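user: Here is a favour to ask of a fellow structure person. I have my own habits and do not want them to colour yours. Could you put it straight underneath, so I can go through it closely?

assistant:
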Amino acid sequence: MYVITGITGRVGGALANALLKAGKRVRAVVRDERKGALWSARGCEIALATMTDADALAQAFEGAEAVFILPPPEFDPAPGFPEAREAIDAIVSAVARARPRRIVCLSTIGAQATRTNLLTQRTLLEEALRKQPIPVAFLRPGWFMENCAWDVDPARNEGVVQSFLLPLDRAIPMIATDDIGELAATLMQEEWSGVRIVELEGPRRTSPDDIADAFSQVLGKPVRAQAVPRDTWEALFVSQGMKHPLPRIQMLDGFNEGWIDFEGRREDIVKGTTPLVDVIRKLVAR
């Protein structure tokens, strides 16, 4: 049995599709039975649990060949990341009780960074799971290409992609969620001992200018990238409803300054196959 948390998201869904295609038995962990209906119809077993309910998670993980851990992201965390810590405590407790044979955890590029930022939530999860005795693989993907979903309307209506990634011509590792799910499925079916770190990026590194060019190609009209000035970020994020914008700002600084990056050698980074333009074409078609 292969247990998947976060199955209703893009990565979890891609992972489930890959495992089902391979003929594997899948248990979908969902908060709401209605959200599991689609996966139940496709033959998945359904387990109801939130990521902060250790008892329900332990039951969901029981008898698992492998468990995929994907806590819900907290984009506006309180100081000290109490939301993430609550979920981490429940996950570790559930793993200790259910003892699956192995764990694949969706982490992030830059999880090894020592400076506090929004991605520190994944650093804390890695630290906790490293201490338990079950083999664990941390899958560290680059920036999600699907983040371009926020850019579809302004690209279509204004011919502009607003970017917090600076400078506009600097390329960073990006990856399609389908490729993340495919690699996660492969990892869940492998065996290893101890801790693995697997880093993943797309076929080529991508800049905001590249994103604008891809939108131009898909929309058939000129689209340009436009920098959002650094000194406007805090007021902008607060105006959008954020209460604690500093971790997000620190994360963006980390990408722009280069201290959020992959840890391993460049030649060891796994390469996905999905080009950015294919992802943007799907986003535009929605």
Remarks:
- The chain has a mean pLDDT of 97.
